[in-house]
Amino acid sequence: MGITGSPTVSVSIERSQAGHTIDSIFQYLKNCGKEVFFAIDEFQTIAEYREKGTEALLRSHIQFIHNTHFIFSGSRQHLMYEMFGSPKRPFYQSTAMMSLQPLHKEIYYDFANRFFTNRGGGFSEQVFNGLYQLFDGYTWYMQSVLNRLYEQEKRVTDDSQVKEAINTILADKADQYATLMSFLSVNQQRLLKAIANEEKVAQPQSNSFLQHYELTSASSVRKALTALTDKDLVYHTTEGYIVYDRFFDLWLKRL
Q: Which of these, 188, 205, 206, lies nearest to 243 by C-alpha position?
């Protein structure tokens, strides 16, 4: 009985029942007699489970279910590629991999501008292009800024309005980022700031980079880089290392 006197029901899964529960789920999918599309978001997090063998367990079930199409998505691209591209992992070559690219600028502009015009305002295409370029069109950051602008502005005609919206977002995140920095070593902090200032660093252990930012040595940078990558604060693209969180990157540039 709840506090109000009304009946209540709760369901919990004990650790010892987890394997049985997974068996039941996949058995249902197999026998339901329907074509099923099963999407799992942020799939890479299963690699962080304390229980060993989770990937192998899921793979052992999935490979025998022919009426279900599985979609695995994740924001940490390097971990997803490792899970599905390494011969040592259970899901190796089990799927067709696809990297989602940012929306085309023109399509994105039409989408965003429509919200402003529908309430008698508008959004300058030139200003939008600057915002798109700043975040390389990545939706999460674009939407955060656009949402803030939609809350505050009816008509966006100047870059200063975008800057003000970004300033309010960074102000909201300032305590979070400051706390995050406090958990890093001095070398990690200095390297993170240097990468943010450069935006992309192809050779972080080069003499020119070390000297310009007064970093101690190539070995210390290598160690700090490994730590920052493991913490998902830095990400290695085909063009070099970048700060993973674009808002964090902007915040670091101001230090």
A: 188
pLDDT digits (tens, 9 = 90+) for 41-69: 999 988 888 778 889 989 998 988 999 99
Please give the angle made by the CA atoms of 18, 40 and 72, to the nearest 5 degrees.
120
The residue count for the chain: 255
Tell me the per-residue pLDDT of 128-176, one tens digit each, with 9 for 90 and over: 999 999 999 999 999 999 999 999 999 999 999 999 999 999 999 999 9
Residues in contact with 148: Cβ distance below 8 Å, sequence separation at least 6, in sequence order: 165, 168, 169
- Quote the pTM value: 0.77
Distances in whole angstroms, Cα of residue 233 to Cα of each of 10, 16, 184, 246: 38, 35, 11, 10
Q: How far apart are CA 137 and CA 246, in angstroms?
A: 11
Handedness of CA 220, 221, 224, 226 (dihedral sign): negative
Burial of 43 from C-beta contacts in 10 A (0-12 / 13-18 / 19+): buried
Looking up tokens 């390494």, which residue turns up? 86
At a CB cut-off of 8 Å and minimum separation 6, what does 231 contact? none
Chain position carrying tokens 């700031």: 193
